[in-house]
Write a structure and sequence with these properties.
The chain is of the alpha/beta class. It has 13 helices and 12 strands. Strands 6-7-8-3-9-10-12-11 form an 8-stranded mixed beta sheet, sandwiched between helices. A 4-stranded antiparallel beta sheet has the order 2-1-4-5, covered by helices on one side. Strand 4 and strand 5 form a beta hairpin. The structure holds adenosine-5'-triphosphate, iron/sulfur cluster and magnesium ion.
Length: 363
């Protein structure tokens, strides 16, 4: 199998980002009103790096990546999404289909979204290869399918290649999805809640596998999750989304050591497994995310925020740089920005974040 090897870090930062999304807006006209799912999202993904997108259900994580990949029918989309300099939002259906799969692949929460239940797993991988690379022989495609299944830890891949999806466990199906996502040597994998449906042990194994193949083949990864605990060991940079906007952006260590935005702080304090939770002091964020048809003015988080001030309901805070973070042992951990009217000096979380800090440190 031909795979791209790590190109090394030297080139990073000196060439254009792999993906550069600027001012992405996604709206869905519905009979109830206009759903403003994404309201001006900007982010970059560098080659071989992992960007985690985190936020509660409905914050716009899935829509923002699917819109970029042409998978949001009926949406009204604006902004730019430059993939190696080409604006994906300007491509037609067929051009996007060719990029999707070959250069960008997607792993969904439910493997059965992508694995057809009536076809053998190996055959589906072979088909993917042959559709995108028609000159590949059936025998060569099969050899690669077996090799890929072995690579992702499917035991006896030469036999299991002829299994149907229902003959695989949930974890094995997700491994098969990862094999499929690697089949065409993509430059970017978008993994949307890839482990949410799995139990904790399998979840850890799959995350470990995703991290390993991502590093081994130097693939960039967008990891979407509602669970900040999941990204502690894997992300280079984290975007925290709320009501269709980025409210905080930081390197992983900065986010865990020195979160600034009260929403991020709330997410960290509500993670099961944090020391706070073990002490019976799990603190979920009070209230619910807003309707995206009637988003609160100013800072959309203000009805739930324990720090809300009059300005918060009146004016939307811009995403701007947090200063002082680098002194917290997180130098070189990327830019830190927060969309909040509180003073822009990093604030620590106290002992409740200790478990997460350790996990971020170990990774
Ligand atoms: N086709 C659609 N028509 C109308 N609204 C939509 C459509 N698709 C998504 N939305 C709305 O857009 C918002 C963002 O949805 P999205 O799926 O991106 O959330 P998410 O952050 O991925 O949440 P989850 O963690 O539950 O997957 C939600 O309010 C959702 O109801
Ligand atoms: S801007 Fe105000 S309401 Fe919003 S998170 Fe900051 S303090 Fe809370
Ligand atoms: Mg989603």
């Amino acid at each position: 199998m031909t795979v791209r090897r790590p190109s090394g870090g030297a080139a990073r930062g000196t060439i254009m980002s792999l993906l550069e999304v600027t001012d992405l807006q996604v709206r869905f006209p519905t009979s109830d009103g206009l759903v403003q799912a994404v309201r001006g999202l900007s982010f970059t993904v560098e080659r071989g790096r992992t960007l985690a997108i985190v936020g509660e259900s409905g914050s716009g994580k899935t829509v923002s990546t699917q819109a970029v990949l042409g998978l949001s029918p009926g949406a009204d989309i604006s902004g730019t999404a430059l993939f190696e300099g080409v604006d994906l939002l300007k491509l037609d259906h067929e051009q996007l289909r060719r990029i999707r799969g070959a250069q960008i692949s997607v792993i969904f929460q439910d493997p059965l979204t992508s694995l057809h239940p009536l076809y053998k797993v190996g055959w589906q991988i072979e088909e993917l290869i042959r559709v995108h690379r028609p000159d590949t022989s059936r025998a060569e495609a099969r050899r690669r399918a077996v090799e890929l299944l072995g690579l992702v830890g499917i035991p006896r891949p030469d036999r299991r290649v002829d299994d149907y999806p229902h003959q695989f466990s949930g974890g094995m199906r997700q491994r098969a999805m990862i094999a499929m996502s690697l089949a065409l040597n993509p430059k970017l994998i978008v993994a949307d809640e890839p482990t949410t449906a799995l139990d904790a042990t399998v979840q850890a194994q799959i995350l470990e596998l995703i991290g390993r193949v991502q590093a081994e083949f130097d693939i960039a990864l967008i990891l979407i999750t509602h669970d900040l605990g999941v990204v502690a060991g894997i992300a280079d940079e984290v975007l925290v989304m709320y009501a269709g906007l980025v409210v905080e952006r930081a390197g992983r260590r900065t986010l865990y050591y020195r979160p600034h935005h009260p929403y991020t702080k709330g997410l960290l304090e509500s993670i099961p497994g944090s020391s706070g939770a073990r002490n019976g002091r799990l603190r979920p964020i009070s209230g619910s995310p807003p309707s995206l048809i009637a988003i609160p003015p100013g800072c959309a988080f203000h009805p739930r925020c324990p720090y809300a001030m009059p300005v918060c309901a009146a004016e939307r805070p811009p995403l701007s740089r947090v200063t002082g973070t680098a002194s917290g042992g997180t130098a070189g951990d990327g830019d830190h920005a927060s969309a909040c009217w509180l003073p822009h000096e990093a604030v620590g979380l106290g002992p409740d974040a200790e478990a997460l800090r350790l996990r971020a440190k170990e990774a």
